Amino acid sequence: MFFVFFYAICAVIGFVAESKSLSDSTKAVLGLLMLPLMLVGLIVQIKRWHDRDKSGWWVLINLVPCIGGLWALIECGFLRGTTGENRFGPDPLQQ
After folding, report:
1. With the C-alpha atoms ordered 26, 27, 31, 33, is the resulting torsion angle positive or negative?
2. What is the mean pLDDT of residues 40-59?
3. Which residues contact residue 90 at a Cβ distance below 8 angstroms, ignoring those fewer than 6 apart?
4. Label partner for 81 (CA 20 to 30 A): which of 29, 37, 57, 87?
């Protein structure tokens, strides 16, 4: 659900930034607002890779053209995490 909210915020910022009535400095500020959002998105995705019992370095799969983002979407968005405890900690659904 985080990424639904994340992409909605990115779309709103993108539409506002593309407005012709904004100055370049305002567009730069909007661009800087994206940095914390991207950092939080990265942290959430690493947490999700850990839920799948994979290293957080798997986040770099997004850099593979064409299939990397799709792979990450399927792994982190549609597949369930490991059942029970894994090497990254307890199952958050069994609390």
Report:
1. positive
2. 90
3. none
4. 37
